[in-house]
Design goal:
The chain is mainly α. The chain is about 75% helix and about 0% strand.
Length: about 160
């Protein structure tokens, strides 16, 4: 492998920066930790870039690098998830405006196990089950089953949330 093309890498990173930020936001709550994680993802992506063979889209590859970096860091610094996030969602404004719905969804997704968070996030970003399987290393049929279960779990949480209003 030759020397990686720094300009091409930076351009691709800039185009797909939102992927890194979304992964970080779903798994890390502290703003300073988010910034540190962004730097770590950039470092890991740069170190891995020479091995990127363009068999998949850059966005798919970057999502995988971002997710693996975040999950590896979380396993090293294991902390219990913030279980009160869903309860906090119940205290959101009683209004049913779009922003409170989005906030509820984000808080609910953050309560899911890490693999389910990844799957539903990718699905909501428009990735097809085959692409999600490629990123996660899971079988396509398993992705469809897990998406069904995740939707069911979120619907149950939604009913509970609406019952608290």
């Amino acid at each position: 492998m030759g020397q990686p093309n720094k300009e091409k890498f930076l351009k691709l990173i800039q185009q797909h920066r939102g992927i890194m930020q979304k992964v970080i936001f779903l798994y890390i709550d502290e703003a300073t930790e988010r910034q540190d994680m962004l730097q770590e993802i950039l470092l890991q992506a740069w170190k891995s870039y020479p091995a990127f063979e363009e068999r998949s889209k850059f966005s798919t590859w970057l999502y995988r690098v971002s997710l693996n970096t975040v999950l590896t860091a979380q396993r090293k610094n294991y902390r219990q998830p913030d279980i009160e996030s869903l309860e906090a969602a119940a205290h959101l404004s009683q209004q049913s405006d779009d922003s409170s719905e989005k906030e509820w969804l984000v808080l609910s997704i953050k309560q899911l196990p890490e693999i389910d968070r990844m799957i539903i996030s990718l699905h909501l970003d428009g990735y097809q089950n085959e692409e999600i399987a490629d990123i996660s290393g899971m079988q396509k049929a398993n992705i469809a089953l897990r998406l069904h279960r995740i939707r069911k779990k979120l619907a149950e949480k939604r009913q509970t949330y609406e019952g608290l209003e």
